Amino acid sequence: MLNYKFLVDTFFVALSGAPTAILITIVSLLIATPLGFLFALVRINEVKILKRFVQVYISFVRGTPMIVQIFIIYNSVPLILATIFTKLDIKINIYDVNPIWYAFIVFSLNTIAILSEVFRSALGTVSKGQLEAAQSVGLTNVQAYAKIIIPQALVVALPNICTATTNLIKGTSLGYAMSLKEINLRAKVAANVGYNYVEAYIDIFLVYLIICSIVEYGFKLYEKRLRTYKVVSA
Amino acid sequence: MDKYFNSVYITNSIPKLLPYLIVTFMVVGLSVLFGTLLGFILAVAKIRKGKIAKKIANGYTTALRCTPSIVLLFLTYYGIPAVAKVFGIDLDHVDKTVFVIIAFSLMFAAAMCEVIRTAYESVDKGQFEAAISVGLSDIQAYVTIVLPQAFVVALPNIGNSLLALIKEGALAYTIGLIDIMGKANLIIAANMNAHALEIYIGLSIIYWVVSIVIEQLFLKLEKVLSKGKQVIKIT
Asked: How many domains does chain B have?
């Protein structure tokens, strides 16, 4: 009943979209990690006006579907850019812009909110005494965070970072809405010719399964390594 | 900018979209119902000693955790009728909503399975043994002692899974379900793709409000339910 030749061929078509999905994931994580950490610090230290802004931002990102966020960015950023470009007289046609740039924006903005919550809860698990102890031996705040607080918080945060990463990878499947040629769209286009949708989606499913399994396994190994240094107090 | 963006469209779109929230809630409600049932079965399989059942349940949750919901949605939409055809059953005229509910039930089951399992494991075994020792039957012990305690632990995770489900539910428009998201796309199509941004903003406001309300409800519920909880302080 299945077209096995198509199934095998399309698997490689879908797989050819994997670099795009992985690139978006990595770029988004690179942008979102420092900003998410900053946002977490803003909320922990209760910086006055900024704290409100961060709260609303996180609440919005977490309270609306990713696909709606994609549509909002995809419809608004070109508008804003077009206005800026005409004002500054820059002759770049915004409709020629590679959709991957929009994907970077959408997924970074989304991941900032998710990671900032992860960091906030992880930093909350490190007792305040740790910071005070670090300060008392003469470390600066930055040193204390880099050497004492973050390594401890990271162990706690890792499973959640793993979930956020796999969710991000899965989220890139929505890139089709920005006509981004990732795993989902490539296989779907291949399926359009002969209506082999079942085969195409089995392939897409397999590609995501493989990528996410590898990522999860990698995180598990890393967590194990980090945990070896953790002394469990009885 | 005025030509492209007009905030009147935001306020106009909200009343047009709101009636379709019922469709969204219906899909979510039914998915929660079936998903919880399946999730419970899977959780039992994981908790019990049976090796094969445990393997199947573990495999199921891993696979579902790694599948984007849009892929799962299309896989059920195209896959189930194809499989049924092999057995000579024609499912071509089955309503799309059914496939949407199946897909999201499968997804929610994977989430609930983990929620139920971790909640169950968080209740100390001594609680069950104590209940047995005062003469309760196994079922009584579970229903009156273990479940109420596990439920309180599970509540925040249930809330998170429910919110995730509502948000993922927006994807049902891709197979043509006219829920709130589908309606937004119809309005945009009727406008010849003009003012799409305003309508999506209106849509996002509705989702945002729904999420906040549900979040607050769960926080309240958690507060009420954990009233009887006594934390034993070790000095």
From this structure: 1
